Amino acid sequence: MDGELLEGQLAYYKARAEEYDEWFLRQGRYDRGPEWNRRWFAELEEVHRELGRFGPTGRVLELACGTGLWTLDLARHAAGVTAVDASPEVLEINRARLRKAGHETSVRYVEADLFDWRPDAAYDTVFFGFWLSHVPPERFEAFWDLVRHALKPGGRVFFVDSVGPETPDERERRSRGPQDHTTTRWLNDGREFRIVKIFYDPATLERRLADLGWRLSVMRTKERHLLYGFGESLARTAP
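Structure for Methyltransferase domain-containing protein, as requested:
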């Protein structure tokens, strides 16, 4: 059973709330140097452009919304955003970020564990950033069923995630064995947590999702550190 692992993963992200933006913004121990950082931000900008072209308009559901770095982008396009996360710590940071930007009235926040939660409405778009890699393999199909049932007929999905580990140190800390999809992460204060972390090959992921009734395009960014996907379900969506 993965209950203990998922409890630890949630504890990690609750404890990491105040540090998460350091990773995303390449600050502190996540600063890889000017050239690496430049490529990272160029890749993020590439995904933001693709998201803009995709057009997350109408009612948008963001799963595992985190500290709001993507919520803010979604709120600029959407008529309204429902942002779901299991961590009250990151939701508070998210609210503050959206409030500062003047978008707080367009976002509804839901504190819930995505492995237990069911949507209470149907949406034009479902978005999740850096979340699919944290879904255990045995919950993969159930997660995509959740996404499907959150969409209106004709609704679409967009996601972004990492292609692989960033550094040799991260590779070394991954658990050994082809069937063990976990890695060890640590916080600035030295505390360690074991979490799910699965890296997908875009073509393989695209084919697997096609087998589940999705028509998605999955691709790498130019620098090949990030992947993103978008498309729609070919199976029945929420009425």
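The chain has a mean pLDDT of 92.
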